[in-house]
From TrEMBL:
Gene3D superfamilies: Transthyretin/hydroxyisourate hydrolase domain (2.60.40.180). It comes from Aliisedimentitalea scapharcae. GO terms for molecular function: hydroxyisourate hydrolase activity. The keyword Hydrolase applies. Keywords: Hydrolase, Purine metabolism. InterPro entries: Hydroxyisourate_hydrolase, Thyroxine_BS, Transthyretin/HIU_hydrolase_d, Transthyretin/HIU_hydrolase_sf, Transthyretin_CS. This is 5-hydroxyisourate hydrolase. PANTHER family: 5-HYDROXYISOURATE HYDROLASE, URICASE AND TRANSTHYRETIN-RELATED. Coiled coil: none annotated.
Length: 118
């Protein structure tokens, strides 16, 4: 089995999945960043398909860019501008060509966390 990449975004302030949050995926090669795709989260806070599927998977350096500010504004959680969190980039490496990489985002208006999930 080949590797693939998924995510899950949870709104920890409201205690629910973050629906409609835009995510961009980039691949880094040295100092060059190339956009590979863009998608929105569904009602469960996930994307409808893997962010990087088996056919497109390669090991290397990647970056997920979560458009948290747009989501927080739409959900009524923007207290004032500029917001404390707007764009949340997470750069990470994938070095196992057969692994499932899961990069969740736990989000609130004033903080976030991530980890390598399963």
């Amino acid at each position: 089995m080949s590797g693939y990449l998924t995510t899950h975004v949870l709104d920890t302030a409201r205690g629910c999945p973050a629906n409609g949050l835009r995510i961009e995926l980039y691949r880094w090669t040295g100092e060059t960043r190339v956009k590979l795709g863009e998608m929105d989260t569904n009602d469960d806070g996930r994307t409808n398909a893997p962010i990087l599927d088996v056919a497109s998977f390669e090991t290397g350096q990647y970056e997920l860019v979560f458009h948290a500010g747009d989501y927080l504004r739409e959900s009524g959680q923007a207290a004032a501008e500029p917001m404390f969190l707007d764009i949340v980039p997470i750069r990470f490496g994938m070095n196992d060509a057969t692994a499932h990489y899961h990069v969740p985002l736990l989000l609130s208006p004033y903080g976030y966390s991530t980890y390598r999930g399963s």
